[in-house]
């Protein structure tokens, strides 16, 4: 299975998200290309709209960019896993480096959130990735394996978890696209360490139509997690075509 997904991060209004979802529904139709599993992660304000616009039974999964470990309570500013699911999310992104960097997300909080997501039937999409100094020191594989092991813990029920290997130095406007050779060892290390416990290992960080096929060709890569290049729906559709071999 090739998972192709995008997070809108903190972009798009409800109307913009709805227009994106409507175009996606029209282009993808009732069945995704064979072997391809698309997912879209809008801002929390637009999860409900995107899920409704895609419609029940859509092959495109909808996700949340984060959710709390508690089922409810005095956690101002947070949404819970049940609330994310109630809005239409089937998947929840956890531990993105922007959340680890700016919002004090740690391996321990990611772990609690993975447990909560599984308890509520959401697919956890756990982001792991090393910063530039760790990469330069040759520590990428050890770093991401430690993050993945921390997120999964000793649980036996992690079979739906998706991992996204996202080197911090490759993400966003300040990022440098990673080469297939650079991601091969960390991906292989993740597969060796936890490959039999998760549903897939995705790659993310400056993915674009120009490098998507090469990155998908790295052994052990089960999909791509995309930011900027998929924020226009035509970019996302192009990536779905590439994943489908078209
Ligand atoms: P980018 O973002 O594709 O814009 O580099 C990737 C991500 O943060 O997941």
UniProtKB/TrEMBL annotation:
Its EC number is 5.3.1.1. It is an enzyme of class 5 (isomerase). Keywords: Cytoplasm, Gluconeogenesis, Glycolysis, Isomerase. It catalyses: D-glyceraldehyde 3-phosphate = dihydroxyacetone phosphate. GO terms for molecular function: triose-phosphate isomerase activity. Pathway: Carbohydrate biosynthesis; gluconeogenesis; Carbohydrate degradation; glycolysis; D-glyceraldehyde 3-phosphate from glycerone phosphate: step 1/1. It is found in: Cytoplasm. It comes from the Bacteria. Belongs to the triosephosphate isomerase family. Homodimer. This is Triosephosphate isomerase. It comes from Streptomyces millisiae. The lineage of its organism: Bacteria, Bacillati, Actinomycetota, Actinomycetes, Kitasatosporales.
